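Re: that chain you flagged

S.,

Sorry for the slow reply, it's been a week of failed gels. I finally had a moment to sit down with the sequence you sent. For the record, here it is as I used it:
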Amino acid sequence: MKRRKFIADMGWLTGGLLATPFIPVKAFTGKDKKIKGFVQVKGKGIKDVVVSDGYSVVVTNAAGKYEMELHPDAVAVFVSTPAGYAFAHESGVAKHYKMVSEIKSRKAVNFELQPLLKDDTEHQFIIWADPQVKNEKDVQKLMRQPVPDVQKLVQAAGAGALLHGITVGDIVWDNHALYASYNKAVAQMGIPFFQCIGNHDMDYNQGGDEMSDKTFQSHYGPTWYSFNRGQVHYVVLDDVRYLGKDRSYDGYISAAQLSWLQKDLELVPKDRLVIICVHIPVHNAVKNNQELYALLKDRKVHIMSGHTHYHRNVIRDHIFEHNHGTVCGAWWTGPVCGDGTPSGYGVYSVKGTELSWHYQSTSLPADHQMRIITREKDAASKRVQVNVWNYDPEWKLECWVDGAPQVLEQNRKGFDWDAITLYKGKHLPKSRPFVEPKRTDHVFEAVILITAKVVKVMATDRFGKKYISEYNV
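Prediction finished late last night. Pasting the structure tokens below so you have them in one place:
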């Protein structure tokens, strides 16, 4: 009996990702609901560190101590890792929390932090959208393509570089057994990864929205939380609301999350950069997006989302949303997403509160930022199409045909021609014929003479970086 208790206590102390029963706080009674503990470095308390159960938000005192009464619906207690400290993780998977099922009655719930060895004002992060593996064939592609690509990125950053990742949902495609494969991928990339829940990460037909996150939580902890690095405050939210039947869901941020976020942001200086990570794009698919925008008023904000399997940059007032092309492209069926964006991920560099970025196409050079295609129009002319997937209104495009300037017209809602070839039709692609090309506003077209020989395009991004591509007609 004593041996069993020892093993159980060791499992709690090591914070392992072992499967444990889902135990909400409402199962606790009386004084058990009130918890306290310390945030420390080698036994010494750290002041003003934020600790939360996703409902209450408290800060540690001068001795590093905190206490709170757990909310009846809380599933975890987490520390909002402060700037200057390393991200706690297990083989790369973020572990900044303790599940309620790990908490022992009347025992201190402590968090041990490790100071960074260098200043974190400058750092990098990557955004993975929708790895979405369905079976072992998809897993093999994940391991063979994007994982080695990130490994090269990490190696190029150099020893000691501060680089972390965030996956913005649909880690798997309804097959939760493959979380283990994703975890192996994270371990191989060699950087800490935070996770955001997507619609394909949920449990179906087990109740309402409050019951749909259990499996995800058993692997990755709370579905909303925050952390800090340098002068950046990162927030992960769950904007997928399960509607209780089969695969029905919509984009919505719960009142509980918005209430928590308001308390969380009250402790963040207004001059900080705020990065919000969600699965479903906020600008056009979250029903109560105005409530979120209201909380972000007067702040410098970038939103990172996925879900759509296309790439789009959207600016709403002062908020810049990056809706990312996916790691899996068009569900692992070809080299591009439905809008022609190559399979890939976002790479972001932080200097203070300034953010710069590029889209990294898997297995291709970082300067691969556009694709030129031509098609015959008639006996005298051809059409040329330029897809600039990371385009936003601050980009500048210049085009020359055989050395002469050529005007490119933006197609507000057009199809990428490669995507049409790969995915258009009820029998294409063969492995997953539901995939279809998607309209996009980042394609540009012109009509040129049939005798044209060379099309050259120079795209200058909002940071002044120039990308040049030539196409022999």
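What I noticed first: The two ends are 78 Å apart (CA to CA).

Talk soon,
D.
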